[in-house]
Amino acid sequence: MSNTSRTGLVVAGLSLGTSLNPLNSSMIAVALVVLREDFRLDVATVTWVITAFYITSAAGQPLMGRLADRFGPRRLFMLGMALVAVTCALAPFSPNFLFVCIARALMALGTATAYPSAVVMVGALARLADTSSTRPLGRIQMANTTGAAVGPVIGGLLVSLVGWEALFLINVPLALAALFIVRKFAPADEAREQGSVASLLRDSDIPGILAFTASMVLLLMGLLNALPGYRWWLLGSAMLLAVLFAWRELSFKRPFLDLRLLGRNRPLLLVYLGFTVFSAVYYFAFFGLPQLLQEAAGYNPGLVGVLMLPLAAMSVVITPLAVRAIDRFGVRRVLLAGVVLLAVAAAALWLLTASFAVLLVLALTALMGVPYGVVGLASNQGLYLSAAPEDRGVAAGIFQTCRYVGAISATVMIGLFYGTGVNQENWGRIVLVMLGLSAVTFVVSLLWRERKTA
Asked: For residue 271, which of 140, 450, 149 has the smallest C-alpha distance?
């Protein structure tokens, strides 16, 4: 087998593995109503099946990026895929909703290994094929985009035909296929740092990881009012832990989340901030719209999946056009154009306060797919241009964390807005928030400039 063919197979395996995280983050959107009915939950409680996934992913991605750097991306990738396969084979037998959330967290931990491992491995693959790393990175980024986009379609069909259990079971053959391909065709890991378990634990910034995760959990519990009467205690504790986390990361030699990297690289910080807010806007629609269509419009999950199909199709169609636009006009102009389209699409979603006509919904989801493809691709390219070459591995992990933070923020606010009912009036309030966040994204994108030395 030629090196080019071998590299192509490895990139395919890595792309499949990296797609599992965004795929599972979006498939669950059309299963929330079914989970609520099966386990007799309210709107705020059922969002924990999403939140557990994103908290684990947000904490796991930067950590997994550093572990891939230290101990080898191929080994870590295969371990993650094995964890996904085992967890998803057992998850359908969960006796209650708590076990479903635990399974989602374990699945998130496994899938969190894929993207950082893939980014680290791309350099070796490019050398093997004697080619640029741009193309394999582009394919991996496309897999992330496509996985998130097609999730509601696949999820809607699976939930409609089988049930929420199928959302776990579909991961078993996919994870095993990715594991087999990478094990069979990926080059062996280069010599990495060695050390005892004690030194690994000492250098892995366990206190930083725990502080980050605990502050996120307490913040979400406070926002959701999970413990009535203790909301302000929870929020205050979350803020205190966040301060302690920042102090720890700035003083620790090998931090879990390198805040110093952000402090010395303003363009990269702006990429992260803009992508976080953009993700919040997008996931407002991604998670809020399926619930609205199922409960307020009365559409079944299968139909909702079909109605979300134009979003997936449009994001795939627009991506090659966005690539050519970036080559011609530059990242910044395309990014700004994409954010303007985001605001237009968000404003158009206001029409759903008046009608749930199928053609209208199809047109609106197609419109929303345009900025998803454009801003997502431009943000990825902005990350690549803003990060120094030696920092791109950890930078990629933090970039993914920004996506999860945006998604968590959206799910929490959806729970708050829909707490009094999933209806058109509350959807109108959500649209107003989306427009405000779109304006913030535009300002941040306007401030971004390409790092010429990257």
From this structure: 450
At residue 87, φ and ψ (nearest 5 deg) are -60, -45
Are 252 and 380 spatial neighbours (Cβ–Cβ below 8 Å)?
Answer: no
Q: How far is CA 418 from CA 47, 104, 291, 410, in A?
A: 11, 23, 9, 12
- Which pLDDT score is estimated for 195? 56
Residue whose C-alpha is closest to residue 123's, from 136, 109, 133, 113: 133
φ/ψ (deg, to 5) at 225: 55, 45
pLDDT digits (tens, 9 = 90+) for 375-396: 988 898 888 778 776 667 677 7
Alpha helices in 130-170 (DSSP H): 134-161, 166-169
> Residue 202 has which token pair?
């000492």
Distance CA 352, CA 360 (A): 8
- Cα separation, 394 vs 389, in Å, equals 10
Residue 444, exposed/middle/buried by CB under 10 A (0-12, 13-18, 19+)?
buried
pLDDT in tens, 325-359: 888 898 899 999 999 999 999 999 999 999 999 99
Q: Which pLDDT value is given to residue 454?
A: 40
Q: What is the rounded CA–CA span in Å between residue 313 and residue 362?
A: 11
* Tokens 């720890």 found at: 248
Put simply, whether the predicted model's pTM sits higher than 0.85 gets the answer no
